[in-house]
Amino acid sequence: SGIARAGAGVAFAGFLGGQCLYNVEGGHRAVMFDQIRGVLPNAVSEGTGVKIPLIQTPIIMDVRSRPREIKSVTGTKDLQMVNIYLRVLSRPRVEKLATIYQTLGTNFDDRVLPSLGNEVLKSVVAQYNADQLLSMREQISRQIRETLTHRADAFNLILDDVSITHLVFGKEFTNAIEQKQVAQQEAERQTYIVAKAEQEKKAAIIRAEGEAQAAQVISQALEESGSGLIEVRRIDAAKEVAEKLTASRAVTYLPGGGEHGNNMLLGVNTN
Asked: How far apart are CA 190 and CA 196, in angstroms?
């Protein structure tokens, strides 16, 4: 009947569409493998594509940047062992996808980056001492990035970012750094003590010179005015003592009687 024929036609069209059409998601490309011509040189962009059933097979490959952490245990120039962690952000070169698939397959980054990363890390780190890995970290990271990018380009891989994330030194080197810091702090403290003693020495010399000059002035005054200077100093001292005592609530001033009476400061127990 007509309905049966229409149903068969729809089924055949659906089957043919499923066999002839394929989808390429965003961030992916399709490498076409042809049973007659082999891998076609041009990758297919995102969208719906057409293939020849039973002859052509699309291989979908991810072309987005993907992160990978590479770990390596390597030795420095001064024979210190260090664990270094490298973060690499990589993607394949789109125009070379057919070549990448032919030579490396779909897991190209697993085949290339771990070995390249270890080799580059070992060769670069071996050029520096352990303490330079800390003080020259930016320069070393840049050298690793340039070397690894150049090596990965031979495999048609693009490295968007390469950075050192962690540096873990051996226990012996860590203890040596701590001891060095303690020694530096102790040296700085000793330097401060020496500088302080030097300043105190200079201050003592200045005080001694001042006292000597004062004694010289006093001696000169005594020679010029006799005992008058001593009497003046005695009167000033007595006046100062009297002012302090009269300011106290426990001391009472008693004036002396008569023309030649002696004045008195009497201590009163306020308890």
From this structure: 10
Beta strand pairing call for 66-75 and 56-62:
unpaired
Strands (DSSP E) found in the chain: 21-24, 28-34, 38-39, 47-50, 56-62, 66-75, 81-92, 157-169, 251-254, 264-267
* CA max distance for the chain: 160
65 Cβ neighbours under 8 A, 6+ residues apart:
89, 90, 91, 160
- Of 162-166, 178-182, 194-198, 264-268, the poorest mean pLDDT is in 264-268
pLDDT at 51 over 60: yes
* Planar angle of CA 44, 54, 61, nearest 5 degrees: 30
Q: Closest Cα partner for 85 from 205, 1, 165?
A: 165
